[in-house]
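Could someone model zinc ion with this protein?
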Amino acid sequence: MRLLVLSDIHANLEALEACLEAAPAYDQVYNLGDIVGYGANPNEVTQRSRELGSVFVRGNHDKACSGLIDLSDFNPIAGMAAMWTREKLVEDHLRFLRALPHGPVSPLQDLQLVHGSPRDEDEYVLMRRDASEILAESASPITFFGHTHVQGGFWINDAAEEKGILEPRYPDKPGPQKFTVELQKNGRYLVNPGSVGQPRDGDPRAAFLLYDTKASQITFYRVPYDIHAAQKKIFAAGLPERLAIRLEEGR
Ligand code: ZN
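Reply:
Sure, complex below.
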């Protein structure tokens, strides 16, 4: 199976379309949540995600924008964007977002999907120590997660004697790029495809990954997209300007 793993699209239609265009052939799409929030195309991106995907977990922005949680935990900019999104979404998409499942979801044996972490759907896994704990407790050898908008991840071997980070490295040139990691048989992995629609790891290009189960390979991708077009829509919608500016910074 060749699995396309997308996360944190955040209503950025330009970024999503660029990823789909650059993606190699795949059998199924796994969507790790935060389909909406921040960007200016929540209906279009929800529609496209529904057409693409069969396996989903919900993100905190999906919950906030569909009215499942109140906005008191959100910073003012995220809160304003969530309010705007809630008003903009058509009823059918609101219903779809409200019904998205709580992670972990396990579509295959030995694999689970979460938005934040297996122990808390809203946890940010950025530190190696948290990742090691999660990996040691984890029910499945491979966990795909999102939420941090940082592409890469963490691994340990079964005996927890060795551990490390997965950090895709791209030679310094523009254009779409990929970075392949061979999975070890006795390894346990916590892997983030990065954010399609609002990268925060310093690389403004849209991010995703492809997991080839037969070859035991994960390939990370970075794809340039029309950031200017996405920014123009954010300004035109009256969304906070910071949400447009950060797209070109990748922060
Ligand atoms: Zn997100």
